[in-house]
Structure formats: structure tokens, C-alpha cells
Amino acid sequence: MIDSIKYKIQICCGTMCYIMGGAELHLLNDHLPSNLKDKVSIEGIPCIGKCDTKEKHHPCVKINGEELNNATSQKIVKQLLTLENNDLL
Ligand code: FES
Description:
Layout: E1 7-12, H1 15-25, H2 28-31, H3 34-37, E2 40-45, E3 61-63, E4 66-68, H4 73-88
Parallel strand pairs: 1-2
Antiparallel strand pairs: 1-3, 3-4
Bound molecules: FE2/S2 (inorganic) cluster.
FE2/S2 (inorganic) cluster binds at residues 12, 14-17, 47-51, 58, 60.
């Protein structure tokens, strides 16, 4: 892992997540503020098992291991900015 990487984004690439919006999350890098781009790594991971419940969680991502359900690029950026701001306090 590169030293500057602080946030590891893992996007579920299972079928349900992919068709429920995960496909567009792979363009996340285009939505990242310039001050975060160098600090974020983005990778795809296999189904994380949220398909087994009746609740609608898709698409799912993990940010440093923490699950974020019903993810959108906006939600991910918001979460990253929150983490970054907490870190600067
Ligand atoms: S496809 Fe994403 S949790 Fe199963």
C-alpha cells in the first residue's frame, strides 16, 4: 500500500450490488475532491454477504473495513470528508 493512502474503499462487485448501482461507483475517482484523490485506494471485492437478508442494502461498500450500505458516490465522499475532518481536529 502506498504511504499516502489513508482510506481503502472496497466496492462490492457481486451481481446484486452491481445492478443496484454499484456499477457507477467504479467512477468514484471522478467524484473525489482533489485533496482526497491521493489518499484513497479503490478496489472491487466479491459479494460481502448482504444478499442473504431481505433488507435492501445494495450497493454496499467498505471504507477502511466499515460497511456503508445503499452507497452512492455522494455518500462515500461525505463519509470520507467526515473522516478527514475528524482526523484534522
Ligand atoms: S452482491 Fe453485494 S452484498 Fe452481495
